[in-house]
Amino acid sequence: MSQLLHLGEVISRNARLFPSKVGAKDLARSMTYQQWNERSCRLANALLGLGLARGDRVAILAYNRVEWLEIYVAMAKAGLVAVPINFRLVGPEIRYIAEDAGAKAFIVQDDLVEAVDSIRSDLSIADDRYVHMGRTEPPAGYQSYECLIERSAANEPAAQVQIDGAATFMYTSGTTGRPKAAIRSHESNALLALSTALEHGFSRDDTGLLVLPMFHANSMWYAQVLAYCGAGVFVYDQKHFEPEHLLHTLSTGNVTFTSLVPTQYTMMLSLSDAVRAKYSADSVTRLLISSAPARKETKLAIMEQFRSTKLLEGYGSTEAGWVTVLRHDEQLSKLGSIGRELAGCGPIMLLNDTGDEVPTGEVGELYSRTPYAFSGYWNLPERTTEAFRGEYCSVGDMARRDADGYYYLVDRKTNMIISGGENVYPSEVEHVLAAHPAIEDVAVIGLPDETWGEAVHAVIVPRSDSAVSELEIVDWCRTRIAGYKRPRSMSFVTEAEMPRTTTGKVLHRVLRERYASSKRDVETRQK
User: Which of 342, 306, 237 minimizes the C-alpha distance to 27?
Assistant: First the structure.
């Protein structure tokens, strides 16, 4: 029976149809589709040669670089499961993901070896399955990525890949404080790529610049969207975000599309008029705002800077994939909306606590019906059951619908903070802070921030017999939690000042209102 092509087969197809076309590149090097396919085949055969078998999980820890594209394709060809890990995480966080996934191999970039070495003795990975990637010689105990490729066969791997089998474990932070793996299949990724290509109007003439981290669902999805179209996939391999450098790249790299979070747009637009006037990104015909809402002023400034582009705003989740899109001609007339359903998706349902649809204008939990939803959470059957109502999927977002059928988010997964496009769950940060011996209780909230959208703020109740300073808490967090999750500001309160429900639960909403109001008052006085 005929079935969809998985990513490995798509690259093989492209290598056959247009072998000389540049398919994958970063700022340092480029590969034709033929070269991309050959190197991916070699890597797939190398990993299978280490004794890995279909369904085995491979952890990947690296900054943005073109090798990510080889790895994702090689995993598909070999029937292995990619487990991309956020490079901002610290040792204990990396260990949890690798152990939870049951990783059988680990591919690590040179700059990040130290983090893996700090927890390597705790992992159940054979010594010959640690692979070093980068420009330096591999340290003791690591195989060379390039040597593995060079000495392996270039033929297509013999692995039998099931289209409904797992392609990736995408770890998303959980409200319980522990990340959970959303299982995405080859089939769901293929359908997502095709639906997105149809919605955005991509073709093989496009070149997409992937700026967001390659461990993110956003960049992984767009890499596959572009590959399915036979377009060019351009990985932006800067470790640190430099707004002028990005603007230069968009202006000189024949880029037609990129997806950025509002913070990145804001940083580019904050460059002086003289600097921005040096660059003309006329090749860019589509821009996507994702991961967080953007203000009207930001949208107007984007459209002024990129005059040849159509501005889009997308809403989705790792679990459901893209759910809605706010199209270019709707940006200002439906300001604040996440748009309407993406091409190929069924109607959204907004349900109340009893499972009934709410009337227009009222708030309900958003359930989407996408043909490319995830398969479930790894080893969490109860959480998987909670996420679905028949064919409909929810990640806990609350929304309302207006009379024209446009949707507006009201709360992001209850108390989730979006800082610089990264999702931060208060419970995870609270778990780390609460372990400090001088802290009696703590609540973490997000406060409005001009640069980051929201900044993490900790409200702390110290123990009555202890004293603790902000500096001590910052130092406590440094080795226990990623930098973007750490509090950027703190308040110290008494137990009586911590607002709670009658059952003792902290009222995060009240804290957000209290401290956001205090912040606005301070800013007003400073003007």
Answer: 237
